[in-house]
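Sanity check

After download, print the first record. It should look like this:
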Amino acid sequence: MDVRQVESGNEGIENGWSLQEQTIAHYCFDLAYEREIAGLMRSVRDRTSSITTVDDIWHLHDFLSARRHNVDGKYDFRYPFLIMVFAQLVKEGWLQLQELEGLDSLKRAKIAALSKM
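Expected C-alpha cells:
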C-alpha cells in the first residue's frame, strides 16, 4: 500500500509550480522514494540474516516501525511543502540537486540552501 500523500489537479499551478515543474517534481519525488525504499530493503535483508533470538525479531520490529514513521512523515507531496521535502531528501542523499534541473532557479536555490542546514 502506498501511503505517500500526493496532491493533484490545479494545486500545483495555484502554488506557483508550472506544469513542467510539476512533472519534474513528481519524477524526483518518486525517484527518491524508490531509492530510500531500496536502501531500507537492503538493510532489512542484512538484519534478517543475523536473527538468532526472539529479541533480534523485536529489535527488527522496532527498527521497521521507526523507519515507517520516518518515511511516511517525509514523503508528503503537497506543493507548499515540496521545497522542504526536496531539501531533506538532498540532505539525506536520496536526491541530488542536479536531478532537480528544470525547476525554477529560485526554488533550486532554496532547496540547496535548506539542504545545507
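If your output differs, re-run the checksum step. Summary of this record's structure: The radius of gyration is 17 Å.
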